Amino acid sequence: MEKYITIDLFAGAGGLSYGFQQTGKFDIKIAVEHNKHAQETYKKNHPNVEIESDITQITNDKYKAIREKFGVVDIVIGGPPCQGFSNANRQKNELICGNNQLVNEYIRAIEQLEPKAFIMENVKMINSNKHKFFCCKKIKGVVEKLGVKLEEETIAIAEATICTDEFIKFLEKEHFLDKYVLEKQNFVKLNTLYRNTKALDQLNKYIKKSEKNIVKMLENWERLQIKFWNTEYQRVFYKVKDILHTFLRTGNGYDILKNYLRIIIETQKAIYKMQEIRDYNITLIGITIEKNNICVMVNTYNIIEYVMKKFKSLGYNLEEGILNAVNYGVPQNRERFIIMGIKHKYLKKGEIQLPKPILNSYEEFYTIRDAIEDLAEYETTVKVESLPIQKDKKEASSLNPLQTYLGVGNLIYNHIITDTRDTALERFKNLKPGQNFHDLNENLKTTYSDPTRTQNTIYLRLNYQMPSGTVLNVRKSMWVHPKNDRAISIREAARLQSFPDEFVFCGTKDAQYQQIGNAVPPLLARAIAEKLLELMDDVPNEKLENIICRK
Fold this sequence. Notes:
CATH superfamily of the largest domain: Vaccinia Virus protein VP39
Shape: globular
CATH class of the largest domain: Alpha Beta
Largest sheet: 7 strands, mixed
Strand order of the largest sheet: 3-2-1-4-5-11-10
Number of helices: 19
Helix content: 25-40%
CATH architecture of the largest domain: 3-Layer(aba) Sandwich
Number of strands: 13
Distance between the termini: 31 Å
Structural class: alpha/beta
Radius of gyration: 27 Å
């Protein structure tokens, strides 16, 4: 049988595509990916695939042309970014994530291409009760027609500060709010200053470090704000300039500076978020004050309920659930939410279901040692443009199945690490396997303004004996090698994601780490692909369980 014509949406570096291709039954024809570095990596490892950049620019006519070109599109795969919102996350400057529309772009692709089957993957939390979308006027009719439950939510957008009743009336009536907000770069500067007013010593440290920039901002103060929503707010805004001048000279006025900056920041947050509501045509039920917060009342809906009902209306049999990559040979606990859809006439083997675990216990799971121990003997580099390393030959009998799978080829690419400064190196030396930033002595935490807020994954020294935790951007997290006093290399992070050594990453150092953190582990993708084949009465060239299970 000919291979299934497949299109990968939101393809990233190509982990999902790579896993599907390893079955020998899927022919990836088009990949859609906006990030230029991820595109470069995808092309390097999938040289014959056509790349489309911006899914929002793919017209319905273009989808029609794709169908005509290939005769039929059998499979669509991909994971659209999808943040939703959280009522608890009022500190974010944006209320609405523009990426949320990309879920509807994925749905539009399914509508237009009419594939036999599709796979949609996403973060585990997408199916939680907290993960909802705001209902806008454009989609409300569709949501109601599908029978998706609309709920009334009260969302805090800012703290209530001055002239509250008057401010709410202003927010309700004024529709051209862009004149009342600071430019983003100016807001960021003021917000950074405000966040450093939590304690007087913290503010003094920040001013000492940033005094030139603050003075420059003061010189342009009158041009920061174009229009003021009332005279009291205008008075506060200009008063901050005088107070800040005084504080720079004498150190006096800390409390009033902190309070006045709070008024500016919270006012700007409220205006900016109301502007978003208008820009995105969100149906606004009302504005209230609750527990000293300005709140908006809006309609929301559960994104997965909407997606499932929408796909069902398009004629797909569906199954959804959470899969953990560690159950399929990946040396990492990484849970992903998966939706599998197959049109009824192509579903040949019983009811649709997701793949069952291949590995079921910690005795069977692969560990960090299994994945990367052999790389410890090779010297790393901090240069992205460095040449690959020639491998030492090892006896095949000494390797476990994961090492055999990962170690394809004679070269080690991307064995590159972040450049380590003395402070970070000292931290590395003081951490034992399984320990993180919070286990360091206090004298090694001083570069952080508030060490208590540091996540447990920061400066985590990995433990050879365990599978890895969820791999994100391990450069930003400063993950430490289990044995050597250095950061985890790009290649080691790739192996923890089950990318074989022949898969080469491109772009800047941070871009490569980010691509790996964003990727679907190829072994997990392969397990999903094999199950899809089974349900469509087909088989892979070789089954994953025969490759990855220990003999």
